[in-house]
Each structure stands twice: as C-alpha cells, then as structure tokens.
Automatic annotation (TrEMBL):
The keyword Membrane applies. Belongs to the binding-protein-dependent transport system permease family. GO terms for cellular component: plasma membrane. Keywords: Cell membrane, Membrane, Transmembrane, Transmembrane helix, Transport. This is NitT/TauT family transport system permease protein. InterPro entries: MetI-like, MetI-like_sf. It is found in: Cell membrane. The keyword Cell membrane applies. GO terms for biological process: transmembrane transport.
Length: 267
C-alpha cells in the first residue's frame, strides 16, 4: 500500500489498475458527499443545500432540457476559445523555444497578460468586438492561453539533445525533426497545458457572460443568485464543473497516450 501512495518514479504514477481508476475516486467522492450532507444538516439551506436536493435539481433540469438550453451557449464559446488558445500557444511556444530573440520579446508580454483581471478585459473586448459568442470565446482563449504556452515552451526546451543530434546526423531537416522528434517528445508537456487550459476555459465563458451578457450558464447562475436559490446556484456550478471535467479528461487521455508512447508502453 505504501508503494502505491509514494513511488520513486513520478512517470509511473498514472492510475493503472481498475481499483486505482474507479474504486479510489468513487470512495473519495462518497466521502466528500457524506461530509457535505453532514454539514447541510447543521447549516441552514440558504447557506448550504443538501447534496440530494442538488441531485434532484440536476436530474430535473437534465430531463426537462433546461440544462442543455443553458449549457450549449456556454460550452460553444469555451471550446472555440480552447481551439484559438491551442493555435496561439503552439505557434508562440514553438517560436519562443527556437529563438532567443523571440523568447526575449514575447515571454515578458505573456507573463504581463496574466496580471490583467478578466473583469477588466471583458468590457474592452465588448468595445472592440461587440456582444455575442466571439468576445466570450476570445476571453476563454486568453484564460486558457497561459498554461498552454508555458508548458509548450517547457516541453520543447527540455527535449533530449541526443535525440535531436541523432536526427541531424541522419540528415533530418528542421521540419522533419519537428514533426518526428520534437513534437512527439514534447507532446506530454504540451497536452498537460492544454488539459489545464481547457478546464479554465469554462471559467472564462461564465465570467464573460457575467460582463457581456449571454444565454448560458452564467446567466442561469445570475438568475439563481438574484432569487436567493442556493440549490439552483449549486446546480449551475455542477454543470460548469461537469463540462470542465469533460474537456479536462479529453486532454488527460491524450496526454496519457502521448506519455505511454514516449515511454514505449502500450497500455
């Protein structure tokens, strides 16, 4: 058991067995729900609703179609923002990791971009792009961009120079080395940033709806807050978290596949 809690090789800590993948998370989830239920019995419903009341509301919204009516207007800009962030992060990360001059120019501005609060950027995006899904998608891209570009640069800078030198000795050109050596070796790091950025994109979409307006989960959260409907607010948070986890797990699967390939593993 101790060997499972702490291993000497961090690359081997991906959950492998059925117990690690399913049973352990399920037990942790049950413990959290029971603790939540115990607290809800002590605190008034206005502060903390019961998890069972939230579950009933989730099922009701899913069966009536209300959840999907509000989910898609938020998920669409979030996914578009993730795609925009991926293109920008790969382009900028590739350029910065292969040019000292470009790295010196771009990296300070990348760090500076994260010091501006989202609520301050949103009105500017409305001024420049108007209302609708496009400015919200751009806001999502800004949120997702930083972890993506950071891990992309790290992934390329930590490549095994021996593999690159072997490729050069074999006569591989710059594009061949990039496609066949650099990208496969840097893929786990790149996808780790995409995984984090994709989860953050839903936050950007909700914040965008708060400031720019919309018809998605941010609007539903505002309506629940105005009605002092704490159960409704928890239900909206559930839908936001569920959508974020779907995006997160998609890139987590791709990251694990890239890591397994890099380590010569098939499972």
């Amino acid at each position: 058991m101790a060997a499972r809690l702490w291993v000497a090789y961090p690359a081997r800590t991906y959950p492998r067995t059925r117990t690690e993948r399913l049973v352990v998370p399920a037990v942790a989830f049950v413990v959290v729900v029971l603790a939540w239920y115990a607290l809800s019995r002590v605190l008034p419903p206005l502060l903390l609703p019961s998890p069972f009341d939230v579950a009933v509301r989730v099922v009701r919204q899913a069966s009536s179609g209300l959840a999907w009516q509000y989910l898609w207007p938020t998920l669409g800009p979030a996914v578009l923002g993730v795609l925009l962030a991926i293109v920008a992060a790969l382009s900028l990360g590739l350029a910065s990791s292969h040019s000292r001059v470009l790295a010196a120019v771009f990296e300070p501005f990348v760090a500076l971009s994260q010091t501006v609060p989202l609520v301050a950027l949103a009105p500017l995006l409305v001024l420049w792009l108007g209302y609708g899904a496009v400015p919200i998608a751009v806001l999502c891209a800004i949120v997702a961009f930083f972890p993506m570009v950071t891990t992309t640069i790290i992934g390329f800078r930590r490549l095994d120079m021996r593999a690159l030198e072997a490729g050069m000795l074999d006569g591989a050109g710059p594009w061949q080395r990039l496609w066949h050596i650099e990208l496969p070796m840097a893929a786990p790091s790149i996808l780790a940033g995409m995984r984090a950025g994709a989860a953050l994109a839903m936050t950007g979409a909700v914040v965008g709806e708060f400031v720019m307006g919309g018809r998605g989960l941010g609007t539903l959260l505002t309506l629940s807050r105005q009605a002092s409907d704490t159960t409704g607010m928890f239900t909206v948070i559930f839908w936001i978290s569920a959508a974020s986890m779907v995006l997160y797990m998609l890139f987590a699967v791709l990251e694990q596949a890239a890591s397994n390939r890099l380590q010569g593993e098939t499972q």
